[in-house]
TrEMBL record:
A single GO BP: regulation of DNA replication
Region (Domain IV, binds dsDNA): 356-476
Superkingdom as given in the UniProt entry: Bacteria
NCBIfam families xref list: DnaA (TIGR00362)
Similarity comment: family membership: Belongs to the DnaA family.
Protein's recorded name: Chromosomal replication initiator protein DnaA
Binding site for ATP: G183, G185, K186, T187
Chain's role: Plays an essential role in the initiation and regulation of chromosomal replication. ATP-DnaA binds to the origin of replication (oriC) to initiate formation of the DNA replication initiation complex once per cell cycle. Binds the DnaA box (a 9 base pair repeat at the origin) and separates the double-stranded (ds)DNA. Forms a right-handed helical filament on oriC DNA; dsDNA binds to the exterior of the filament while single-stranded (ss)DNA is stabiized in the filament's interior.
Localization: Cytoplasm
Location, primary (coarse class): cytoplasm
Limits of the AAA+ ATPase domain: 172-302
Length: 476
């Protein structure tokens, strides 16, 4: 007796289940239903285009083998794709893949599916239903262009941001990648773009999401079997702002999902805005294909603001908070906190809090007193210069010698400990540490750190030295 499509698919599922992890089976195969069997062609229904792409990319080999096992060498598979479940039209739209009549065997052999097919099918079907979404963009309304002070440090990134805000998806800055060090205004600028788009084009669907939150949502959606909703949601956006994409490092599955979402948005002319602590070329732990996408548009960096810009930032904040500070105090703060805008603002807030508590006028003296304490608690104190000074004082060796080429034992020891502590107590890269300690390369730093770690493990006296210095570092 001829088998029904349900029986054939049930047998296929048995084989598939034995060959992949249970969670993957639940996520990608349980939502599939068998629709029909015509001769040797089995048609299955998948819940979205994204689902179809994912199966084609990750399970094509397994599917091909399984179908052949059930239907013989000329067995084929066709997909029926439910394109828009949220449509109000009563029944879901569906479309068949492949649509060119070549049969799924041809389809299964050619992966990934050609871009032209994606494009034609996606736009007309997916967007109309999902456009009805009302999405909270998750933006902080204080992060506007108006509040973002322009300086040499951010001119390119800021004007690119403006261009993107005026024409989301319509410039070559797609994606726009804003990168730079801690607290230099990446989130503020990225959100300013989102706020400006929502102000001038309220109908646009904009979403801000940190990379960390996106990763968590992905894990949750796998757990709850809502992966389809998760992907559909992001694919329906006009603008996605993803903060801190360096946090994708090592998370391959989430990168995979984002790769698909990214492709979909980009092909549909939607805007992607990314922030990162490093330039795309320096991002470690990200898949090459994702990195190459990140390099497509424009990468613009944010540098440390110069004194003039720092003063302007402080004045703007004071103005916004309705506070007046003497000019010399503002200049003093801006002069002394010079590598992180968040810390700059933090110093001012502490200054004001102290003044309010002590009911004192904020003059230069108070600013100096207070700033002394504030600087101690910031990363400024733990600079490579400071580590070098501390280590050299401890071992009573001349400070400049650690940067020289000398191989004297006590100097080498001070140099290696300085490198080791710079690696663990500063955010400097191995390359920067090497360059700072006498123009050495990163492999010298790796070797130094390894040597120090080994000695800590084997030499009690040495371990005590390092701990002593670390204690001083923390107390200073
Ligand atoms: N050019 C600027 N003009 C006005 N305010 C700024 C500017 N740059 C940074 N800020 C302010 O500095 C603070 C830190 O900025 P933001 O959080 O955007 O930095 P970030 O680079 O995203 O930091 P992180 O590396 O921690 O993610 C915010 O309060 C922001 O408003």
């Amino acid at each position: 007796m001829e088998k029904t499509c349900t029986e054939v698919w049930k047998n296929c599922l048995q084989i598939i289940k034995d060959n992949i992890p249970n969670q993957s089976f639940k996520t990608w195969f349980e939502p599939i239903t068998a629709l029909k069997l015509e001769g040797k062609v089995l048609t299955i229904q998948v819940p979205s285009l994204f689902f179809y792409e994912w199966l084609e990319e990750h399970y094509v080999g397994l599917l091909r083998k399984t179908v052949k096992k059930q239907l013989g060498e000329d067995g084929r598979l066709e997909y029926n794709i439910v394109v828009d479940k949220s449509s109000n039209s009563g029944s879901p739209y569906t479309t068949n893949m492949p649509s060119n009549g070549n049969g799924a065997e041809a389809k299964m052999q050619s992966m990934p599916i050609p871009v032209s097919i994606n494009k034609d099918i996606r736009n007309p079907f997916i967007i109309p239903g999902l456009k009805k979404l009302n999405v909270d963009p998750q933006l902080n309304s204080n992060y506007t262009f108006e509040n973002y002070i322009e300086g040499d440090c951010n001119r390119l990134a800021r004007s690119a941001g403006y261009a993107v805000a005026a024409k989301p998806g319509g410039t070559s800055f797609n994606p726009l990648m804003i990168y730079g060090g801690v607290g230099l205004g990446k989130t503020h600028l990225a959100q300013a773009i989102g706020n400006e788009i929502k102000r001038s084009m309220p109908d646009k669907l904009v979403i801000y999401v940190s990379c960390e939150k996106f990763c968590q949502q992905f894990v949750d959606s796998l757990k709850n079997n809502t992966i389809n909703d998760f992907v559909n949601f992001y694919q329906a956006m006009d603008v996605i702002i993803m903060d801190d994409v360096h946090n994708f490092a090592g998370k391959e599955k989430t990168q995979d999902i984002f790769f698909h979402i990214f492709n979909h948005l980009h092909q549909s002319g939607k805007q992607v805005i990314l922030t990162s602590d490093k330039a795309p070329k320096d991002l470690a732990g990200l898949e090459e294909r994702l990195l190459s996408r990140f390099k497509w548009g424009l990468s613009a960096d944010l540098q440390i603001p110069d004194l003039e810009t720092r003063i302007a930032i402080l004045r703007k904040k004071m103005y916004a908070d309705g506070i007046e500070l003497p000019g010399e105090v503002v200049e003093y703060v801006a002069h002394n906190i010079d590598n992180n805008v968040r810390e700059l603002e933090g110093a001012m807030v502490s200054l004001l809090a102290q003044a309010t508590l002590n009911k004192k006028e904020i003059d230069l003296n108070l600013a100096k007193q207070m700033l002394k304490n504030f600087i101690k608690n910031t990363s400024k104190e733990i600079s490579m210069e400071y580590i070098q000074k501390l280590v050299c004082e401890y071992f009573e060796v001349p400070v400049d010698m650690v940067k020289s080429q000398t191989r004297k034992r006590e100097i080498v020891q001070a140099r290696q400990i300085s490198m080791y502590l710079s690696k663990s107590h500063t955010k400097s890269s191995l390359k920067t540490i090497g360059a700072f300690f006498g123009g050495r390369d990163h492999s010298t730093v790796i070797y130094a750190c390894q040597t120090v770690e080994d000695l800590i493990d084997t030499d009690k006296k040495f371990k005590a030295y390092v701990h002593d210095i670390q204690k001083k570092l923390k107390m200073s």
